[in-house]
Amino acid sequence: MLNDEMKRILLAAKGAGWVTEPEAKRFFYLAGIPVPRHLWVRSVEEGVRFARKIGYPVVAKVVSPEVVHKSDAGGVVVGIPGDRELRAAHDHFRGLAGFDGMLVEEMVPGIELIVGAKIDHQFGPVILMGVGGTGVEIYKDVALRMAPLRERDVASMVKSLMAHPLLEGYRGAEPVDLGALTRTTIAFSELVMEMEEMIESIDLNPVKCSSRGCIVADARIMLKKDVAGPTPVGRLSL
To answer: Which of 90, 112, 124, 182 might form a disulfide with 132, Cβ 3.0–4.6 angstroms?
Structure first.
């Protein structure tokens, strides 16, 4: 499943030790896992043009190899309604450590989940699913299974979550597309199995799930320290 471009993305991130969000999203896009429309920009005017193209409101995020937890650093602004607010977000991001541009992307509706993986020294790749977003550490509503996953494993994970009624349509709300969630989680599990020797952990958080499907709204890949490789990958967009 890993093609040459995906391998280059991983190897190019050796110096930082992790794959920044724009490159991580390119990686998962190449793996066939849905991501929002986005563009990595340095010029604020380029960001404004893209935001107008996809339509406000948009999300803006700092791109920096020194900012791993963007929300904690004030590096994420959601629901940006227009050009003025987007320019203000860019001005703010420029003051953050290691600033290397801004990610502008479309707003995606849905329930926030986390799908993640960690390489356990004894058991190998372990897959996590649970309530995501900034509340993941508060609610701690997660399920764990060893990879590789099958459909029945994903169904069991969903059922074991305290929040599973929300996914199945609580009090008349539309249920999320559990088929899409299953496909995304299985594809992720297969990908992690291939990457086992190169990574420490991966977080897809949040994965926005609605009745129309599941989209990876943020992604971070932490590399093993012994990953080595060549040339950095250039700026990429979808």
So the answer is: 112
